[in-house]
Every structure is written in C-alpha cells, then in structure tokens.
Specification:
about 350 residues; alpha/beta; about 15% strand
Length: about 350
C-alpha cells in the first residue's frame, strides 16, 4: 500500500514538472518576436552625421531643420538608423576649427557645415568624409569648391545667394523709401560670406546713383553703436547675410524703430524677426535641398565632386507690416499686391 502511494506521489511530481517545462517552452516560443525585432534593428547600419554650425540664429537653425527633415522623409530617423552630433561654434573661429578636428576622427558617414566659417574649417580638416555645406554665400570665393557646376573634391552643398536678390532689393528701396539718397550697410567684413554680399550691395546701390555709408563691426557687442552711427546719415539700413549682425538683429531692430530708419535684410527669417522687407527664400528650403543631396550620397552612392552647388529656387518679396509702421516705411497697396499671403508678417 505504501509503495503504491509513493508511486502515485512520484507520478504526480513528474507530471507537474512536465507541465512546468511545457509552459516555459511556450513562453520561450512567444518571446522571440520582440527580441528578434531588436536583433534586426541593431543589425541595421546606423548612419552617423556631424553638424557644425557657426552660431545659432533663426536662419541657420531653419537650414538645419530643413536638412534633418529631408533625411527623415527619406527614411533616416534619429534614434533609429541615424545618429546626429550637433556642435555650435558660438561664432568663434577657433571653436569651428576644433569641432572640425573632432569630426575628422569620429568615423562619421557625412558632415554638414552650416555657414561659411564652419564650412571652411570642415574643408580644411576633413579630407576622407563627404562634406555638405548650406547657408554659404560665395562657395567659390571661400575656396570650398573648384567650380559651382563641378566642385571637384569632397565638398559641395547649397548657397544662400540668389543671383538677383541684392540688386532687386536695392531697386525696391530706391523706388519705395521716401527721399532716399543714402543706404547704410552694417557688416562684419571679417566674414568671407559678408564680403561677397557687401560688394554686390555696394555695386547695386552705386549703380542706382545712391550713396553707400558703411557701419563696420567685428563682434556683436559693437552692433548697437554701429547702428546708431547711421542715424542722420542714411534713409535706409541694409543688413546682409552676416552672422555677427543677424545673431544680434533685435538690437538693430530696436535702433531702427527708435530712429525711424527702415531696416532691410537679406533673407525672409530676418523679416519675420523685425526687418521691413527682403527679396529672398526660406532657409528651411535650402536646408531641405542639402538634405536631399545627403540622401544622394548616403543611399545612392553619389560623389560630392560631381554634385553641382545648388541655388535657392525662389525669390519672393517678404514684408513685415508691424516693422514698417514702427520704422516709418509707408506700405502702399501696390507693394502689398506683390506679396504672397505666406510672406506677409505683422
């Protein structure tokens, strides 16, 4: 009797063990779908991109956002198959060089350089990784490419200088600013991109028979004094694509409002931030174009040497009604009729 009872106990224990093992086996079968997905994700190649930007301000930030959006639209998403190292040089050339040197040893798949100083530093220090630039005014003069059509090295990208933007804006000022005889130009001509822009502006102003008055700066702390120095000398102020001035644009806007001098700018983002008007484009758009070039390199195996530098595709009048009123610029119905609804700010 005792033996029979022991046998039954032993049999019950064995059956219990078999049930437990079966249950564990079932659990093990059901889990691989999750862990298997992770294995497949980790095996996917992650693209590593370094972004170097000379300084943070609205236009350059928008170019960066456009670049990343183009990548996202083409299947590259941060946190999944894209790793981005963003570095801000704080408008310091030494910082830009240090960032470029760091990127040269980081085993990156591609570098994006935003604005001329960062692009020059990247080109000087990085030789074996594709470099794309954006928000660069004069790629040829900056020594970044051998030609706009065939860059010839590991560097190409998008320029923020539409061939007719500056001359069109100067004609607009002559035709619409009352009793204009002189235009002030604020600029840090230590920036190579600014030199090209100022040269073009000077030529356009003089061709219209107007006087040029320069207000030079070397850093953002000098911007207010430079703007105030133009009061009583000019009837309009022009700020080119100059990172030093644009990063302190609110200071210039304050002086323009106080002195009732209409402020004209080189791009639409600065119109949004207090300039009266500009003939330009969205920096987001040239950033997006640069992102599509990155996709061509990363996904389609294109060589930067063979990718022509791209220009802004549009040139539209942007107008800030609030700034116009504050700075004494009369907006006529004829001017309003030139402005698309999306380019009218108030």
């Amino acid at each position: 009797m005792m033996k029979k009872r022991n046998f039954r106990v032993l049999l019950a224990i064995c059956l219990s063990c078999m049930l437990i093992m079966t249950a564990c086996g079932a659990k093990t079968e059901s889990e691989p779908s999750s862990s298997g997905g992770q294995a497949s994700s980790s095996s996917e190649k992650k693209i590593k991109i370094g972004i170097t930007q000379i300084v943070e301000h609205a236009s350059l930030d928008e170019a960066r956002k456009g670049f990343l959006k183009a990548l996202q639209d083409n299947g590259y998403e941060e946190g999944k198959n894209l790793e981005v190292d963003f570095q801000n040089a704080q408008n310091d050339l030494n910082n830009a060089s240090t960032i470029a040197q760091k990127f040269s040893t980081d085993k990156l798949d591609l570098v994006l350089a935003i604005a001329t100083p960062s692009a020059q530093a990247a080109a000087q220090n990085i030789k074996d990784v594709p470099i794309l630039f954006t928000a660069v005014t004069d790629p040829l003069g900056a020594g970044l490419v051998k030609s706009m059509e065939a860059p010839g090295g590991n560097v190409t990208g998008t320029t923020d200088m539409h061939p007719e933007a500056v001359s069109t804006l100067m004609k607009f000022i002559q035709q619409n600013v009352k009793d204009v005889s002189a235009i002030g130009i604020m600029a840090n001509e230590g920036e190579q991109n600014t030199v090209a822009n100022v040269k073009e502006a000077e030529a356009a102003i003089q061709e219209l028979g107007l006087k040029v008055v320069k207000a030079p700066v070397t850093n953002s702390s000098e911007v207010k004094q430079a703007a105030e120095s133009l009061a009583g000398k000019v009837q309009a102020i022009y700020v080119p694509q100059d990172n030093t001035i644009v990063s302190a644009l609110s200071t210039v806007v304050g002086v323009a409002n106080d002195k009732k001098i209409p402020l004209f700018v080189a791009e639409k983002d600065s119109v949004k931030n207090g300039g009266v008007a500009s003939f330009g484009f969205e920096y987001f758009d040239i950033g997006y174009t640069t992102g599509k070039m990155a996709v061509d390199i990363l996904k389609n195996g294109k060589n930067p040497a063979e990718l022509a530098v791209q220009y802004p595709e549009t040139l539209d009048l942007a107008l800030n009604l609030k700034s116009a009123a504050a700075q004494g610029f009369e907006v006529t119905d004829a001017i309003k009729s030139e402005v698309k609804p999306e380019n009218l700010f108030e």
